[in-house]
Amino acid sequence: MVDFxxxxxxxxxxxxxxxxxxxxxxxxxxxxxxxxGNKVLNSIKEELNNCDEFYISVAFITMGGLTPLLQxxxxxxxxxxxxxxxxxxxxxxxxxxxxxxxxSFSNIEVKLYLQENKGFHTKGYIFRKDNVYKSIIxxxxxxxxxxxxxxxxxxxxxxxxxxEMVTEIFKEFNELWENASNLEDVILQYExxxxxxxxxxxxxxxxxxxxxxxxxxxxxxxxxxxxLSNLRELIKKDENRALLVSATGTGKTYASAFAVHEFKPKRxxxxxxxxxxxxxxxxxxxxxxxxxxxxxxxxxxxxKDYNADYLFxxxxxxxxxxVYSQFNREHFDYIIIDEVHKAGAISYLKxxxxxxxxxxxxxxxxxxxSDDFNIYELFDYNIPLDIRLQxxxxxxxxxxxxxxxxxxxxxxxxxxxxxxxxxxxVSNERVSYILEKSQYYGYSGNRIKGLxxxxxxxxxxxxxxxxxxxGHPSIALTGEDSQSAREEAIDRLTNDNRxxxxxxxxxxxxxxxxVDIPEINQVLLIRPTESSxxxxxxxxxxxxxxxxxxxxxxxxxxxxxNNNFLIPIALSGDRSYDKDNIRRYILEGSKIIPGSxxxxxxxxxxxxxxxxxxxxxxxxxxxxxxxYKNLKYKLGRIPYLVxxxxxxxxxxxxxxxxxKYDSYYNFLIDVDDEYKDILxxxxxxxxxxxxxxFANGKRPHELLMIKxxxxxxxxxxxxxxxxxxxxxxxxxxxxINHSFKMFNLEFFIKKDQDKYEGISFFKNHQxxxxxxxxxxxxxxxxxxxxxxxxxxxxxxxxxDFGLLRYENYGRCExxxxxxxxxxxxxxxxxLLNWPHDDSSTMYGYRIKHNTCPIFVTYEKKEDISSxxxxxxxxxxRDIFSWMTRxxxxxxxxxxxxxxxYEKTNLKIHLFIKKSDDxxxxxxxxxxxxxxxxxxxxxxxxxxxxxxIVNFKYKLHNPVKEEIYKYFNDKVED
Length: 973
What we know:
Elements: H1 5-16, E1 30-32, H2 40-48, E2 53-58, H3 63-66, H4 70-79, E3 82-88, H5 96-103, E4 108-113, E5 123-129, E6 132-138, H6 144-148, E7 154-160, H7 164-179, E8 181-182, H8 183-215, H9 222-236, E9 241-246, H10 252-263, E10 268-272, H11 275-288, E11 296-299, E12 310-314, H12 315-318, H13 321-324, E13 334-337, H14 346-354, E14 359-364, H15 375-378, E15 385-387, H16 389-394, E16 401-407, E17 410-411, E18 414-415, H17 422-425, H18 428-441, E19 450-453, H19 457-469, E20 474-477, H20 483-494, E21 504-507, E22 522-525, H21 532-540, E23 552-558, H22 566-572, H23 579-592, E24 598-601, H24 603-614, H25 621-635, H26 641-647, H27 653-656, H28 664-671, H29 681-693, H30 701-712, E25 714-715, H31 717-725, H32 733-743, H33 750-755, E26 776-777, H34 780-786, H35 789-805, E27 822-823, H36 825-831, E28 851-857, E29 873-876, E30 879-883, H37 893-899, H38 901-904, E31 907-913, E32 922-939, E33 945-955, H39 961-968
Parallel strand pairs: 2-3, 3-4, 9-14, 9-15, 10-12, 10-13, 11-12, 13-14, 16-23, 16-24, 19-21, 19-22, 20-21, 22-23, 28-31
Antiparallel strand pairs: 1-7, 2-5, 4-8, 5-6, 6-7, 17-18, 25-26, 27-32, 29-30, 30-33, 31-32, 32-33
Helix pairs in contact: 5-8, 9-10, 10-11, 21-22, 22-23, 23-24, 29-35, 30-35
C-alpha cells in the first residue's frame, strides 16, 4: 500500500500556507463549487467511482439530485461497494420516491433522522479508498441545483484513517446514525405527511403561475432580446431578409412573434410544413398580439381562412397554384418561414419567388443541408442570432436533461446492430428490457409522458402493442395517421384529467421537428443514430420547460451500430470531427455540458462508441468538401483555416495532413472551381513546410518567428522572448534555439530534408543565438514570395491558425508539453528539444539528452511477440508499473540511468495510448520518478526466460479520473 502521509502534508501546505508550494492535486484540500467546467456533482461522481465504501449525510435528497447518479449507483452495486446514507424529514423536503430508490440498492443502507429529535442541517460526503478518506463537506444537499448550478461552498480534503478529522467525522456520523430511524419503519408515515404538504405547495405554485400568466405581458428571454436587438440593426440597414438559427426549445416561435409585433405589419403570413405546428404557432402569437384574436386565421387542408390578416398556413396548401394566386405578390408585409432548412424544396421556392413582402424571416435549428442548396444565401447571409444546444443550456433556456447511454440487450446471444432482424427488435426480452430501464431511470413529474423513437413503422406498431400488454398503454403514430389522430394521441399523453391516458407515443420521425409537447419527461431512443442533426431534434422533443418538470430523462439504447460516434458529436455540438475532442467529450461530457444537464454512459456503451470512433475514417475528401461547402455557404465567401477554427465547424488539420494536399491552397484548387488564384511550386513548398510542422500549434515559437519576419522583416531573440510571454512562456531560450534547427532542416531525417530542400527563411542562413539583440533578417527569396498577395494570405492564414490552436495546448512543469494532450513520437523529439528527429528508432522509450520519454500502448495486440507483451499498467491514479525492454538487467546502463535519475537530472515523461486503433498519437500523462525497481523475467515465443526490469513510478500529477478509467476499462461486449 502506498504511503500518502507526505502527499497529504504537502497538499495542506499548498492549501493553507503557501499556494506556490508544489504538491499533488489529488490529495490537496480544495474549494469545490459549481462553475463552468466544474460541478459539485462531478466531484462526488469521481469519488464514488474510486472508493471502497462511502457515507453521505445531507438534509435534503430529491430525485433531481439522485437521477444523475443512478448509473454510478448501479455500477457500485455491481461491484459490491457498500454505502450508508442518512437524511432528514426537515421541512418535508426530501422526496419519498428518492428514498425508496436509494433503499432499493442491495449495497446501500438508508436512514431517516426525524426533526423532532433535533435540527439536522449536515451536508457531507465521505469516501474511503484503502486507508485514505476523502471528504466533501459544506453547503450542497443531494438536490439537482445544489450539485450543478447553485452558488455553493464545499471543502474537499483528505485524511488517513487515524487522523483526528476523520475520527471526529465518524464519531458524529455514527451518533446520528444510531439516533435515526430505519427507512422501512417510517417511510409510510413520512410519505403521508410529505404528500399532504406537497398538495398545498403545488396549489400555491399553480396559483402564482396562473396569476403571472394572466396579469403580465410576455417578456422576451435573453436569447429573444439579443435576436430582436440584432434584427433591429439589420432593418435599420434596409435589409429585408434574415435567418434565425435557434436550437429546439429556445423559443424561436415567440422570438418571431415579438419581431413581427414590433414591425407592426398590416398583414403577415406564417408558413409551416404541418397543420399541427401552425395551430401551436398561432396559439403562441395570440399571446403576443393580445386582443387581436379576430385577425388570426388558418389555411390548410382542413381550414380555408383566406381573408385573415394574420394567416398561418401549411406550405403544402399555400404552394398550390389555385391558392397562392388568390393573393397579390405584395399582399403580406411580413412572411415567416418555420423550419426553413426545407426551403430547397420546390414548394418553398415557388412561394419565396412569388411573394414580395417587406421582410422575410426564416427560422431553423439546423440550417446546414447535405445537398447544394444554400439557405444562408437565400436570406442574404443575415443571421441575427445563431444559438445552438450548448448555448441554450448555458443561458438556462431549456429544461435540463439527464442523458444515459445504455447498452442495448443481446437477443438470442447476438448484439443488436444495423442489420438486426425485426423479430429481435420487438422480442419479449427487448421489450421487457426497455421498460425495465425506463422504470429504473424514471422521470420528473406525477406520471410518465414518454416519446419513443424507433427505426420503422412496423416496429413502432409492434412495440406499442407489446408496451400496452405489459401495463404501459402506448400508441404508435406514423405519417399515415391523420392530424386529428395525432392531436388525440398527444392529448391522451399529456392531459392528466383524462381516464384513458397513455404513457408513450412511439414513432419513427414525424415528431423530429416542429411539434411542441413540453410535457414530455422521458425520451427513449431505440434506433441507430444516423445523423447528429436528427439526434438533437429527437432529444429536443423533451427540452421544453414545463411546470413541475424539473428535468427530462433521455435513454439511448446503444447497440453495435456503425455510427455510434455521432452520439458524442451531437451531444457536444462539436462539429470539428476531431477524434481527440470527441473522446474527451465521452470522458468528460458531464463536466463540460453547461447547467444542470448530465451525461452518463455505461461501460459497454462507452466501449461501443470508442470502437465506432476508432473504425471511422474522417480523412475523406467527400467529408472535406461537405464541411467546406457548408462553411462557404454560411460565410458567403471562401473560408480559410482560421474561419474553420473560429466557427468550430471542422478541424482543417485533417485536410492539411491528407497526403493529397501539400497545403490548404492545393485543397482549394481541387474542390472549388471558383477559386482561380495561382501559386508557384516554391511558394507551395514553404506553405507545406509550415503546414506539416507548425500548423498543429503544439509550440508557438516558430510561428512567432515567421510572424515577425512577415510583419517586420527581422526579429531579435528578445522580441521572441517578449512575444512568448503573451503565451505564458518564460525563460525558454532552449526552445528558441531549437527552433532554428527546424528552419535550417537540421532536425529532420534525410527524406524530409529532401522534401523541403530549397526553403530559406533567414538571410545568410542565420541559425545561431549570438545575443539577444542580434537581428535575424528575412531571406531574399522569402521576402520576394511575400510580395505575392495570394502567398501572403495563405501564409498568414496558416500561421494565425497554428497560433490559435496553441490555445488547446500549453506547458507543464516548464516543458512544452500539455497534460492529456496527444503527441506523436516526432512531436516529442521536437518539444523536448532533441537536436534530431529520432522518432523512427525511439520505439517504447529512449534515454537521450537528459530526458527519457516512455511510450506505452496500454492494450497490447494478441499477435505481438511474447517478449514485448510488457505488463505496463496503472496501480493507482499516481502509481504506474512499467517494464523495460527485454534483456535488460538492473546493472544495465539504461536501468542504472533511470535508477540514478536524480544524479543526472534525468526527466522521465510518460505517454500512453489505449490501443493501436487510436493511431500514432499518445496522451501525455506527465513527468514521473521511480521509487521501486526489481529484476524479473519475461518469456519469449520459444518459452525462454528473458531478463527484464520492472519499475514502479510515482506520477507528479495523479492522472485524471476520466483518463484513468478510460485506460483501465476492459469490458467484454
